[in-house]
UniProtKB/TrEMBL annotation, chain A:
Subunit comment: Tetramer of two alpha and two beta subunits.
Protein name (database record): Phenylalanine--tRNA ligase beta subunit
PANTHER family according to UniProt: PHENYLALANINE--TRNA LIGASE BETA SUBUNIT, PHENYLALANYL-TRNA SYNTHETASE BETA CHAIN AND LEUCINE-RICH REPEAT-CONTAINING PROTEIN 47
Domain FDX-ACB: 739-833
Gene name of the encoded protein: pheT
Domain TRNA-binding, residue spans: 41-160
Organism: Candidatus Brennerbacteria bacterium RIFOXYD1_FULL_41_16
Residues binding Mg(2+): D489, D495, E498, E499
UniProt key word tRNA-binding: yes
Pfam families assigned to the protein according to its UniProt record, in alphabetical order: B3_4 (PF03483), B5 (PF03484), FDX-ACB (PF03147), tRNA_bind (PF01588), tRNA_synthFbeta (PF17759)
Annotated GO biological process: phenylalanyl-tRNA aminoacylation
Length: 834, 346
């Protein structure tokens, strides 16, 4: 919203010391956020009125013209200009060398110098409005330079003087006004400023007489929807002459970003910005008369009777609004109708047909109160937001309609002195009862945190328009809410806390240490675990953590052949992003592809929620889908490298961290794997009997749908919640006494068929002495495996032998070794390699 | 009697030619050792007249100090440039440990978790697909609040809502605040509490360098029988000082959010210019950090806490924003780019 400082000052005696910057700070700290100040005359030095005397083409330039411009100096200026609306004799704004302009209305201010354009000297610039910061005041097409059409223009006059640009426009952030209908006007803001700066607020002039019901009987107002329209004031004024508004009126409107149209429309708009009451004027003679038979009479003599009905639109009704668009109405839209059809969208926009035009002689002036929700719903359905609807949406008070009507009548009388008010009707049914809040003074002190004093508290509230009664004995405050704050904004004691504290000044509140009950420290292993896992993967394994969106690209789903039903977004960011991921792998594969443009080998991980259709378990009484956390990774590198086993090591690291005390630890075996994986080169990860995830590579068919630049890509995905649960239940490690007698380490290498797998081999080896009480012979570590040809391979591993009561002799060890080799020969036909 | 000036000239010249540690040591013995000319001379001063002592003492001592300093400087240089022998180049780099990278938002989140845990806060998390009931109804959003419209919130397609919520629509949570009511309701005993709930939230809006559809927040709520606006202020200051590691000036000003009463926008004095105004704070001197305020009575009520007895204070920190500020990141979309050129910087 734009505020004109000049207009504010009409109602406010501000000392000179209160600069626009102080107003900005004051409003921001106590009321609403000021986005920026715009001093109209600022940066208009060296910009003068110039008259274009001659326009010539420039050879080789499409849009540029060479102009000669009179700026009141002895010689014409030569200026190269690309304006699309140039004509000879045109008055425009000319920036002389030294002026500051904003190129195409954007970026920083640039100093104008004499320059050569297309080899032609240009001695200045003919400006568009936005190039000299007047875009708000002078709306224009992009390439159009200013076309000044004022009286008394003379080349060389200062533009600032000619345009009377002596105002400062204050731009308010609309979002911070959501709950304050009273601030959508200059008067409301002036009231706020009067409290902030302790200045006097001038009351608006009002003549009670003006609103005394005068009945000629030419207008009847009927309200069908009493809940949606609590008040409708209609006035009939005849002998109105439509014309241009006086300069002062136009200046206020343009300062606030509104385009002057004609005196009547301008007055309704002016009341809107001055008091925040939206108004509308109908052409009386274009409203369908009540009686079908009567015909229109010559203007000036009213014999017809028109009716205004506030009702819901009927099925199939349409209206063409003043913006020229035909709009189909839905059944529950609130409209203003004459005896035949809708003539305005209540609280949003009037109809084209019945609007004020040059021929209008008699008007029906509307100042009404419409329901916030009804206006908002219709405005949303039609996609039509107007200065009127944004105000009604905030919930206005019916009293405001009266204030608006008074002001409009006063202005119309002032601007069209011949006009005559012949009827005014006030249809209403609203409660005039004052609303009040009661609270203990102590409540205020406790909530604010300091006692600012009773007198000061009452003074603040009174200056804001609240009426206060303080009961000395009980220390209870009764606070009556002024009508302009009573439509929902202020209704509970907490609202009063805000009023007092913000005017007193939030920055004067001390940062006070609270007295807090001593509580036991929270033990939350889940977060320790998250930290540990992330540190393991980053610092420990050299992986980089990525964050991806929760939605997936449907192209990836297609490539992976995902057919499951996924959770779907009703209004997705884009059509191809409508599904929510049930696996983090989708995003990581995309990351892999993207990063391969710059890196040859890397590894990434992500810890995040995924989504699926089952029922999830969360605090709260609603039923929500499953949203488990997954910890997933992608490892990318050279085809020849040992990436699968590197990744397997990473996965084992994660499970060891989580399952340290659970025996047996995680195991790797065949399981129910996603179809996009190469079933031979992928494994399930199991904890006891539960599959908690997998690792592996994409199957070749799927893989070739991605552009992996001939690199190897290994994936893993684990259920984080399961891991985290076992981590949380994990028991403290118990110390085992160190072995009294040293163990003996010996390497073994055997030749077996390629079909024999390490896991089975190891199980057999470990099983040989499993049942012995004080003799242990186990695999200490895997060493290597390589192909021998003939479908045979060599497998080498290190054995560890020990006994509980003695150091084993070489002889004993060889015996044990032979026993193991014998077993391997029986089971696998293994032969020892020398 | 020796000539101190000659001695100095000779010592300097010889030091300049010394290359190895052995040569330096030989020089030291010759000019500064116990039986060097200078040492002998200094010892002999004891037998000189007072006048001679006054004249020669400081001069000889000065020379000794000067030579010691020259030697020290020379040793320093020699220490960093050892001669290359037998192909052992000590300047070659050490083993390259690839330490990996945590996402910058994770790093800032961890710091905040630390700070809040230190203050006795519990960490909590909730569902990312939530419902209109928790994200709007219980938070005192009027039935017709614009944020309920599809332009701001991502709604879940009803067909996938097989769970029978009926008219209660499911959404991708547009903020974290709904979680606070889940937490309060789940609390069996109504007692004071303080907790944080970091996470991501989603809004249906156009993205650019400053706006994301998926963004990260860090919200905290403290509820007790006696938490005032002043109490909230110290909470804010403590947290910001922890994150930025220095004293900060905080400003609270009015702002409107349905679930707080009164509502605040909380600004921090720009750290870049100390409030004088610069391009970081858009010449304002202040940077908007977070909204906050005491929970609206209706919100406490929805959580099962009697607003007549309990008070509280919310703060909500934009994690992306604070991370961007901390590292000078100028495009929020980089956070979701998965681009290692970005991630490797942290």
């Amino acid at each position: 919203m734009l505020l004109s400082l000049n207009l504010l000052k009409k109602y406010l005696d501000l000392p000179r010391s209160i600069t626009p910057e102080k107003i900005q700070l004051g409003l921001t700290k106590s009321t609403v956020e000021v986005e920026k100040l715009h001093d109209q005359g600022k940066n208009l030095e060296n910009i003068v009125v110039g008259q274009i005397k001659k326009i010539e083409k420039i050879p080789g330039a499409d849009k540029l013209r060479l102009t000669r411009v009179d700026i009141g100096e002895s010689e014409l200026l030569q200026i190269v200009c690309g304006g699309s609306n140039l004509y000879e004799g045109m008055f425009s704004a000319v920036a002389k060398a030294g002026a500051m302009v904003r190129w195409h209305g954007q970026g920083d201010l640039v100093r104008i110098e004499k320059a050569k354009l297309r080899g032609v000297e240009s001695q200045g610039m003919i400006c568009t409005a936005s190039e000299i910061g007047l875009g708000n005041e002078f709306l224009h097409q992009e390439a159009e330079v200013m076309d000044l059409k004022l009286a008394k223009l003379k080349p060389g006059l200062d533009l600032k003087t000619v345009l009377g640009l002596d105002d400062v426009v204050i731009e308010i952030d609309n979002k911070s006004l959501t709950n304050r209908p009273d601030l959508w006007s200059h008067y409301g803001m002036a009231r706020e400023l009067s409290v902030i700066f302790g200045s006097k607020l001038k009351q608006p002039k009002s003549s009670i007489d003006a609103l005394k019901s005068r009945k000629v009987g030419c207008l009847s107002v009927g309200i069908d929807e009493k809940k949606l329209c609590q008040r409708y004031l209609g006035a009939v004024i005849e002998n109105v002459s439509i014309g241009e508004s006086p300069e002062w009126l136009k200046k206020h409107l343009t300062a606030c970003g509104l385009r002057p149209i004609n005196n009547i429309v301008d007055i309704t708009n002016y009341v809107l910005i001055e008091f925040g009451q939206p108004m509308h004027a109908f052409d009386f003679n274009k409203l369908k008369p009540e009686s079908q038979k009567s015909t229109r009479q010559p203007a000036g003599k009213i014999q017809n009777k028109v009716e205004i009905n506030v009702r819901l639109a009927r099925l199939g009704e349409k209206i063409t609004t003043i913006d020229g668009l035909e709009r189909k109405l839905e059944k529950d839209s609130l409209v203003i109708a004459d005896s035949e059809k809708p003539v305005a969208l209540a609280g949003i926009m009037g109809g084209l047909e019945t609007g004020v035009s040059q021929e209008t002689k008699t008007i029906v002036l509307e100042s009404a109160n419409f329901d916030a929700v009804a206006v908002r719903k219709t405005s949303q359905k039609l996609g039509l937001r107007t200065e009127a609807s944004v105000r009604y949406e905030k919930s206005l008070h019916p009293n405001l309609a009266e204030l608006g009507m008074q002001r409009a009548l006063e202005l119309i009388k002032q601007v069209c002195q011949e006009s005559k008010l012949i009827q005014i009707t006030d249809a209403n049914n609203f409660s005039k009862k004052e609303k009040a809040v009661e609270l203990d003074y102590d409540f205020l002190v406790k909530r604010i945190g300091i006692d600012i004093g009773k007198a000061k508290t009452l003074k603040i509230l009174q200056s804001l328009g609240f009426k206060t009664t303080f009961h000395q004995k009980t220390e209870k405050l009764r606070i009556s809410i002024p009508w302009w704050r009573a439509t929902g904004d202020v209704s509970i004691p907490e609202d009063i806390v805000e009023e007092v504290a913000r005017i007193y000044g939030y920055d004067r509140l001390l940062a006070k240490q609270e007295l807090v009950n001593l509580e036991p420290a929270k033990y939350q292993p889940r977060y320790d675990f998250e930290l540990k896992i992330k540190n393991l993967l980053s610092v420990g394994c050299g992986m980089a953590e990525v964050y991806n969106y929760p939605w997936t690209d449907s192209l990836i789903l297609e490539k992976l052949g995902i057919k499951e039903k996924l959770v779907e977004i009703l209004n997705p960011p884009t059509e191809k992003n409508k599904f929510l991921k049930n696996s983090l792998v989708f995003g990581l594969l995309q990351n892999a592809e993207d990063n391969l443009r710059f890196f040859d080998s890397f590894s990434l991980f992500e810890l995040s929620r995924v989504f699926s259709l089952g029922k999830g378990k969360f605090d709260g009484n609603d039923n929500l889908p499953c949203q488990p956390y997954k910890i997933s990774g992608v490892v990318v590198g050279d085809k020849k490298s040992n990436l699968f086993f590197e990744t397997k090591g990473v996965v084992k690291g994660i499970t060891d961290l989580a399952l340290a005390q659970i025996l047996p630890r995680a195991s790797f075996k065949a399981g129910n794997l996603p179809e996009f994986l190469d079933q031979e080169k992928s494994q399930g990860v199991f904890c006891v009997n539960d599959m908690i995830g997998y690792l592996g590579v994409l199957n070749p068919g799927v893989c070739q749908r991605f552009d992996f630049r001939n690199k190897q890509v290994v994936l893993f995905e684990l259920d984080f919640n399961l891991l985290e649960r076992s981590f949380s239940e994990k028991q403290t490690a118990k110390y085992k006494p160190l072995a009294k007698f040293p163990a003996i380490l010996r390497d073994l290498a055997v030749e077996v068929d390629n079909s024999v797998v390490w896991q089975d081999l190891r199980q057999v080896v470990d099983g040989v002495y499993e049942k012995e009480d004080s003799l242990w012979a186990n695999v200490d570590s895997f060493l290597s495996a390589f192909d021998l040809g003939n479908n045979k391979k060599s497998v080498a591993f290190r054995m560890k032998y020990s006994a509980g009561d003695r150091t084993l002799t070489d002889k004993e060890v060889v015996e044990i070794e032979n026993k193991i080799l014998k077993k391997l020969e029986i089971e696998f036909g293994a032969k020892q390699r020398q | 009697m020796i000539n101190l000036d000659n001695l100095k000239t000779r010592a300097r010249a010889e030091l300049a030619t010394a290359r190895t540690n052995d040569e330096l040591e030989a020089w030291r013995v010759k000019y500064l050792g116990r039986s060097s000319d200078l040492s002998l001379f200094l010892r002999s001063l004891a037998e000189k007249t007072l006048e001679e002592k006054r004249e020669l003492g400081p001069k000889a001592n000065g020379l000794k100090q000067e030579l010691e300093r020259l030697l020290f400087d020379k040793q320093k240089i020699a220490g960093t440039r050892q001669p290359v022998r037998s192909g052992f180049d000590i300047t070659e780099p050490g083993k390259n440990l690839n330490l990996g990278h945590l996402h910058p938002i994770t790093q800032v989140k961890n710091e905040l978790n630390d700070a809040f845990k230190f203050l006795g806060f519990e960490i909590y998390e909730g569902p990312e697909i939530s419902s209109e009931g928790y994200d709007f109804d219980v938070l005192n959003f009027p039935k017709d609040h614009p944020a309920r419209e599809s332009m701001d919130t991502y709604w879940i397609k009803p067909e996938t809502d097989v769970l029978g919520n009926g008219l209660k629509r499911l959404d991708l949570r547009p903020h974290l605040t709904g979680m606070s009511v889940r937490y309060m309701q789940a609390k069996k005993k109504k007692e004071p509490f303080r907790f944080v709930y970091p996470g991501r939230a989603f809004r249906s809006e156009a993205t650019d360098a400053g706006h994301e559809r998926c963004f990260y927040q860090y919200e905290a709520l403290i509820v007790n029988k006696d938490i005032s606006l002043s109490g909230g202020k110290i909470l804010v200051t403590t947290i910001l000082e922890r994150v930025f590691g220095r004293q900060v000036e905080v400003r609270m000003r009015p702002g409107f959010f349905p679930f707080v009463e009164p509502g605040f926008e909380i600004d921090m004095q720009c750290l870049n210019c100390s409030g004088r105004g610069c391009s970081v704070c858009k010449w304002d001197g202040w940077v908007e950090m977070m909204p906050g305020g005491p929970p609206h009575p209706n919100v406490l009520k929805a959580g099962g806490f009697d607003p007549k007895v309990w008070q509280g204070f919310y703060i909500n920190i934009g994690l992306d924003r604070i991370t961007m500020m901390k590292h000078g990141i100028d495009d929020i979309r980089l956070m979701h780019s998965g681009d290692l050129r970005f991630l490797n910087q942290f």
